[in-house]
Design brief:
Length: about 190
Amino acid sequence: MISYEVAVAAINGLRNEAVCVTTMTQTKYWYAVSERPDLDIGISNGMSKASSLALGIAIGAPDRPVIVLDGDGSLLMNLGSLVTIAGQQPANLYHFVFDNGIYAVTGGQPLPNPQVDYPAMAIASGYVQAHSFSDAGELQAKLPQIMQTPGPALIHVSVIGEPAEEGVDQTWESNAKMPAQMRALKRALE
């Protein structure tokens, strides 16, 4: 298994000018390494919607890579997004699924089926490429080629589960953050 820190560092090292959409646990780790907050959208209050939002951005900005850092629990709540993404065939979309086998932000409850084969589901849906990693060295070695190959791509990363000790921030301020990030991203892409 790979630590979140190592996985996001590898992705960030190849980011360049990519937009990055994150959700839940991934957001915390991404914000710790990202040097481009103007190109980041964190969805903490919309579990399962990161891939859908990333698709919209990928379609609207086809010349810019779009990275989505999704969770296994989040993707399970929106499996239809795989088919929708594949139907649009955004060559600039790189969909990372961090698989920890639990709903981390709500206390670590197990997923209904922790043995889901996300890469197989992506390929069956029509993704151009899909990969799976449980070794940090292999992820770091193969990720540059994956990110240079047109997508849509699903990159499954087995990570160490870390149940959250605190709940999701559900305040007016946290709910206002994503729209502010979207406006900042729109300005950055103009």
